[in-house]
Design goal:
Elements: H1 13-38, H2 50-64, H3 67-75, H4 77-101, H5 106-116, H6 123-130, H7 135-147, H8 149-161, H9 169-193, H10 195-199, H11 205-223, H12 225-256, H13 261-272, H14 276-286, H15 293-314
Helix pairs in contact: 1-6, 1-11, 1-15, 2-9, 2-11, 3-7, 4-5, 4-7, 4-8, 4-12, 4-13, 5-8, 5-14, 5-15, 6-7, 6-13, 6-15, 7-13, 8-9, 11-14, 12-13, 12-15, 14-15
């Protein structure tokens, strides 16, 4: 007897908010980049604000964290550890390989590698939710990859990018501590101390995060507008390859480890989506505006590709023939 078709479920409020986030956010970033490209002279003096703006984004991420998020890491150390290793092996390795194979100029090569060495992008949680993936695992891997970034990103960048440009790993570590770790932990502490009050503003955090990231992209693009026309095609090719291969290899890592389809979907986005806002900030501070180009393009592209892949995955049945469980996102907030 044939199995009756599965009746589609009505979208929830979280579904609608998540879809809005990953639809509007890329458009906002594209518009910001267009403004920076069209009128760069109006924004080139804003560069010193980049670390502060990134700090705002990371503080809002910290505000979304709860004790349950940290306890979830302890409950699934194997899966979280695998996601962490896959993220910091696959993406840095791909960055170096793509930069080498494409023969990228030193500034662009260092920028691509730096994107690969960055922690997970916070938008990965949202697209995992839309893909009916394991949201709890996604949040855990994104949180841990962010917390360990000061210890992992600088030495990896030094190892892989030093042949292209001089890398000051010590100064980079200090910047990550100031712009990532301290704001995230600060936001988490505020959430623990004043959870009732923070709960009242959680709905406003996605808009604040999206607007802040758009300004970040505006500044980065305006700082390198004169170079974009010459290198746009090459940078876009590198970014599409980097992101696409990261998504595919992340999913493959989860399947090879027998984590199941929902967890493998989470792995795909935790590996393939990066905190490109951090990469842009570090590239601007330690290399050059040209080195920040890959991060600026990645910031737009990985949200577009992530939303598209999530939509495709959400229509594919789970192992039992029913859609894979989605859970609920800790925060429907787009990220760099």
């Amino acid at each position: 007897m044939p199995t009756p078709p599965i009746a589609p479920t009505a979208p929830t409020a979280a579904d609608r908010t998540a879809r809005l986030a990953v639809t509007v956010f890329p458009l906002l970033v594209v518009a910001a980049g267009g403004v920076g490209l069209a009128a760069p002279s109006h924004f080139t003096g804003w560069a010193p604000a980049v670390p502060w703006l990134l700090g705002v984004v990371m503080f809002t991420m910290g505000l979304t964290l709860t004790g349950d998020d940290f306890r979830a890491v302890a409950k699934r150390p194997w899966a979280v550890g695998l996601g962490l290793v896959a993220h910091y092996v696959i993406m840095p390795g791909l960055g170096w390989l793509i930069a080498t194979v494409l023969g990228l100029p030193p500034q662009l090569a260092a920028g691509v590698i730096l994107v690969g060495c960055a922690p997970s992008g916070t938008a990965s949680n949202v697209v995992t939710y839309l893909a009916r993936g394991d949201v709890a695992l996604s949040v855990s891997v994104a949180t841990v990859s962010t917390l360990v970034a000061p210890l992992v990103t600088p030495p990896l960048t030094l190892l892989l990018a030093d042949r292209f440009l001089d890398v000051d790993a010590g100064a980079m570590l200090t910047d990550i501590l100031k712009t990532v770790l301290v704001p995230v932990l600060g936001g988490a502490l505020v959430r623990m101390a004043a959870g009732r009050w923070v709960g009242k503003v959680l709905r406003a955090l996605p808009a604040l995060s999206a607007l802040t990231i758009a300004v970040l992209v505006l500044i980065v693009v305006s700082g390198s507008a004169s170079r974009i026309k010459d290198a746009a095609g090459l940078v876009l090719l590198a970014v599409v390859l980097h992101n696409g291969l990261g998504l595919a290899l992340g999913y493959a890592a989860g399947r090879l480890a027998r984590l199941g389809r929902p967890a493998s979907r989470a792995m795909a986005f935790e590996v393939g989506m990066q905190n490109s806002g951090l990469a842009a900030s570090l590239a601007t501070a330690h290399f050059s505006p040209a080195a920040a180009l890959p991060a600026a393009v990645f910031s737009v592209w990985h949200n577009v590709s992530g939303a598209a892949v999530a939509a495709w995955m959400s229509r594919r049945p789970g192992p039992s023939g029913s859609p894979s469980p989605a859970g609920s996102p800790a925060s429907v907030s787009p990220g760099p």
